[in-house]
Design goal:
The complex is a heterodimer. Chain A is α/β, with parallel strands linked by helices. Helices cover 41% and strands 22% of the residues of chain A. In chain A, strand 9 and strand 10 (241-246) form a beta hairpin. Mean pLDDT of chain A is 85; it is low at 398-411. Chain B has a single domain, classed as MetI-like (MetI-like fold). Chain A binds chain B through residues 74, 76, 99-104, 107, 109, 111, 113, 115, 117-119, 128-129, 131-133, 180, 186, and chain B through 179, 181-182, 184-192, 195, 199-200, 203-204, 206.
């Protein structure tokens, strides 16, 4: 479901926006327009859409227009031209009153420097939006307390903002937006002013909250690692224009141009590569119900592997090694019961490489990648993981030539 | 050079004459009303015996400042004034200052808000304030007489004019100094202008406004003394009498009384202002 659609949004700062807009439409560049009209093109013909329940990260270096863009969404900054359609309503058509109501109902905002009101207690800060809406005092107090509990600040409601640490202040900022229960949250570099450890905690917390809330979040960031971690999709901006829109993986593996490529080249690939992108498809598995040791052994021999996963219906239930299968066959066992190792390690398909390393380090056994119904998606072992990382490094270095063959052990 | 003199003075006189002939009935009526008010306040304050009122003032000083040293100073200072036989003029000075400040703040704060929120108003008000503040205070005394007659009301009128600029300026400044990101946050949450003013800008500007009120009180005090020349009584009147009779001792006694009242008012207002900050 499309929640926000931004069409050809342009914002020009200066005294002659119309002249500058005309030049822009004729294809003049930002520098030329500035030289001629002294007007700055902050956002240049940006179009993108955001789906309901999605976190979209708008990313770019400072001065790329991302903060201006997000302020255009709630018209803290008045766009020069274009359309912003939220839930089918063109925000630019709203008059002053309707705009205020729209902001009160739909748009929560969290700021880089927290922007807490220093003369109000934590709780009064959180109540602010409801107070503006003229919500009845008892109800707004209750909702404020609930929002504070959500962000882990229970018991701090009577503090003044200045008494709290930066991380806690931003939690208050988050609670202040959450208390309104808006369907859209605009977060302008919300975690950029925090130190790295706190920032990571806040990111995790936002993701946890988002699991419950399913808000539509527009998050501004200049930090690619943050964008990758939080963003379902990323919008990359340069000089006010959008250069690429896509998932983290699409942007990293297939950068639209040199600018994007340079931007992403320092990214730690182990955070981007996930189990799904490195796993190998499994063609052969043993069937728990029908296969005995001999059948399993034969499958292994045929595929040239020494361990095989066993499935029961669609579910993966265990692992059998060739050595044990040989022994069981000699004993004359008819089923895999005695030799099946049901203590297998499974991961979901979005597990990142950095989390796979320790799993693969502690044992040489392959890890099964399963979906939510415990169905086998593929397997990851040391070789496939290292091979995949080597691949991406290759792509980065020489523009994606064929990767060297990886060592084949399984499947 | 003097062949043709630009008739600035004549013009101003004509203007004032015009106002006096056409409006002095209103100002005189107002004058009578205010004079009754002042008399009422002074009589009220003179009603209890001086020690009781001194204790009340010291108690008020403690209540407002929460600082024992200020309360003790108020107590000692006022007892000294009483001892010097200046109690009645001191009470009337305090009454004049309070009333003038009340007028100045009641007009000054709204004007300051207007100047902060409206660019045109700001551009009109600022030069007028510059004019009001640089014009020598004595000059205000002259037109006050035809409008209000000799006496305390003319004194209050010129005092209000003279002491109002700081509170206007600092209200304007305080509101303008509200951090941009806070104003942005208030806008983002859908505040209207009234909500923004009362929930954000005024509370944030409060310490600055209090500083303005403090200055206004100090200016009012100094002007009330000068206004003794047009018939305001009080400590200024004592100084004025001492000048005319060449009694330096009496003059200094009244002067010390003024200093004591000034220090008490200033310290209390500073404390109140600091409290507004937290």
């Amino acid at each position: 479901m499309e929640k926000i659609r931004v069409e050809n949004l342009t914002k020009i700062f200066g005294h002659q926006p119309k002249a500058a807009l005309r030049m822009l439409k004729e294809g003049a560049g930002k520098d030329k327009i500035f030289a001629k009209t002294r007007n700055t093109v902050a956002v240049n013909n940006a179009s993108f859409s955001v789906n309901e329940g999605e976190i979209i990260v708008i990313m770019g270096l400072s001065g790329s227009g991302k903060s201006t863009l997000v302020r255009c969404l709630n018209r803290l900054i008045e766009p020069t031209s274009g359309n912003i359609i939220i839930d089918g309503v063109n925000v630019l058509d709203l008059d002053e009153n309707a705009l205020r109501h729209f902001r009160q109902q739909h748009l929560g905002m969290v700021f880089q420097n927290f922007a807490l009101f220093p003369h109000r207690t934590v709780c009064e800060n959180v109540e602010f939006g409801l107070e503006v809406r003229n919500t009845d005092p008892a109800e707004r107090h209750g909702r404020a307390l609930k929002a504070l509990e959500q962000v882990g600040l229970k018991g701090q409601e009577d503090q003044m903002p200045a008494q709290l640490s930066g991380g806690m202040q931003q939690r208050v900022g988050l609670a202040r937006a959450l208390a309104l229960d808006p369907d859209i949250m605009l977060m302008d570099e919300a975690f950029s002013a925090l130190d790295p450890l706190i920032r990571r905690d806040m990111q995790d917390e936002l993701l946890t909250l988002q699991d419950e809330m399913q808000k539509t979040i527009v998050f501004i960031s200049h930090d690619l690692d943050e964008a990758i971690k939080l963003g379902d999709r990323i919008v990359l901006m340069k000089d006010g224009a959008i250069v690429q829109v896509g998932t983290a993986e699409e942007i990293l593996t297939n950068p639209a141009d040199d600018y994007v490529a340079r931007f992403v080249e320092d990214v730690d690939m182990t955070k981007v590569i996930n189990a799904e992108s490195v796993m190998k498809k499994v063609e052969i598995m043993a069937y728990y119900k029908t296969d005995g040791p001999k059948a399993a052994l034969r499958k292994m021999q045929k595929a040239g592997i020494t361990k095989i996963f066993v499935r029961k219906g669609q579910r993966v239930v265990g692992l059998v090694t060739a050595d044990n299968a040989v022994r069981a066959a000699k004993r004359g066992d008819k089923t895999l019961d005695s030799i099946i190792d049901s203590n297998i390690r499974t991961v979901s398909s979005d597990t990142s490489a950095i989390e796979l390393f320790p799993l693969l380090a502690e044992s040489n056994d392959p890890v099964a990648v399963i979906d939510e119904n415990e169905r086998m998606q593929g397997i990851v072992n040391r070789a496939t993981l290292l091979g995949a990382i080597a691949d991406t490094l290759q792509i980065e270095e020489n523009g994606g030539q064929d990767a060297p063959p990886t060592e084949e052990i399984y499947a | 050079m003097n062949a043709y003199k630009i008739p600035i003075g004549d013009a101003i006189e004509a203007l004032i004459d015009f106002f006096v002939t056409n409006f002095s009935f209103a100002t005189k009526a107002f004058s009578g009303l205010t004079e009754n008010g002042i008399d009422l306040l002074v009589n009220l304050m003179m009603l209890p015996p001086p020690p009781v009122l001194i204790a009340i003032f010291a108690g008020l000083a403690w209540l407002l400042s929460r600082q024992r040293s200020i309360a003790l100073f108020a107590l000692a200072g006022l007892v000294l004034i009483w001892n010097m036989g200046l109690w009645a003029p001191t009470v009337s000075t305090i009454a004049l200052v309070l009333i003038a400040t009340l007028f100045a703040v009641c007009t000054g704060v709204p004007l300051g808000i207007l100047a902060a929120l409206n660019e045109t108003a700001h551009r009109i008000i600022t030069p007028i304030l510059d004019f009001m503040q640089t014009m020598p205070a004595f000059v205000y005394l002259i037109p006050a007489i035809p409008f209000f007659g000799l006496g305390p009301v003319a004194a209050i009128f010129s005092t209000v004019i003279f002491s109002m600029p700081p509170v206007i300026r600092l209200t304007d400044l305080g509101i303008r100094q509200t951090p941009k990101e806070l104003v942005e946050a208030a806008d983002a949450f859908g505040c209207n202008r009234r909500q923004k003013l009362f929930k954000l800008q005024l509370p944030i500007a409060m310490p600055t406004i209090m500083a303005g009120i403090n200055q206004t009180i100090m200016l009012a005090l100094s002007m009330v003394v000068i206004a003794a020349m047009i018939g305001a009584k009080g400590l200024g009147g004592e100084v004025w009498k001492a000048i005319q009779r060449l009694q330096p001792g009496r003059g200094f006694e009244a002067g010390i009384g003024i200093v004591i009242v000034a220090i008490i008012l200033d310290r209390i207002m500073q404390k109140v202002g600091n409290k507004a900050k937290t």
